[in-house]
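User: Can you help me understand a structure? I only have the sequence.
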Amino acid sequence: MIKPVNAHISATPPPPVMEARRWLEGVEFPADRPLINVSQAAPVDPPPEPMRRAMAEIVLNDAQAHLYGPVLGLPELRAQLARDWSAAYGGTLDPAQVAITSGCNQAFTSAVATLAGPGDAVMLPVPWYFNHRMWLQMSGVETLPLPTGDDLLPDPDRAAALLHERVRAIVLVSPNNPGGVEYPAALVAAFRDLARSRGIALIVDETYRDFDSREGAPHDLFTDPDWDDTLIQLYSFSKAYRLTGHRVGAMVASPARLAQVEKFLDADTICPNQLAQRAALWGMRNLSGWLAEQRREILARRAAMTQGFQSLADWRLLGCGAYFAYVAHPFDLDAEAVARQAVREAGVLMLPGTMFAPTRSRGGDGRAEAQIRIAFANVDRAGIAALFARLTALSL
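Assistant: Let's start by predicting it. Here is the structure, written out as tokens:
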């Protein structure tokens, strides 16, 4: 008889996006009211055509792209990222402080694997990115929730009061998933100082850094010559260059940390996707103008979302930025019931706040039951207008 499933995995809820897609089963969407899917924060378009042509050339002509490569990634890509980050953040990064991973999720899982094990804890601000929470739960690592204010920003003083001796890291995501908020540079620095004073890591996930509304560096952590004694930064090429299916991300950390990460990566995927790495390198060298245009479009959609909620009675916009709007709904139902009924009655697929925070039955403060995440990056401005028309008509 097959032995039971690992208890940590069996206790972990299903992947939220996959769970939400099941709500579509049996629902018909007429041609004049197609589904508006604002559930997932991933580009649905392929990479730009020049990149796809470059990738085709690589497939045909670069034999090394089909073989195993270095576990920590393509040396040229590591060096390019170190140069670009040094310029962008006004600090000094060395290629030896860069690892390439199979997506940003793997950057997170490998970082945590080197920091914490069963019985340890990691602090996540609430609402959290659900895959971060899932990995901790599956690994037997306690999630220490850090409640945020009405502005969705975490408070370093509150974090300091909650930290205990088993906490190994604090995780920040900015621009935030799911909240959309951009963490001020001073706030991020305060968390760095807190983590350093407690001898723990600060993990800063900057998956959406390319769509930050601020000009210049979003923080100055890399200007500290000793940054790598505390900071671990994560990044995704998937959002920048639409390489989601190719799985390519990055981690920036100390060489000593990356020596431990290498063990995890070698036992997991052996090396990052070779084609994806070469595509990311080509993108960094050739698509700066294209990426700037993509950023402008995302910021225009953000503005449309903000304006829309100003005129949508009873809904309250809590945070908006990068790919996300995080809102409080006005209905006398919990968020999952609202999201499920929105599929049937409005043809809109959104994710409930209960997928990003502890529910009241699990010690939450009840706010998640009144909150919704809307991932708007794949909806153009006409689609955003249609979204608001449907939300306005929604009566539950």
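Now, to help you interpret it: The chain has two domains: 7-46+290-393, 49-286. The domain at 49-286 is CATH 3.40.640.10 (Aspartate Aminotransferase; domain 2). Let me know which part you'd like to focus on.
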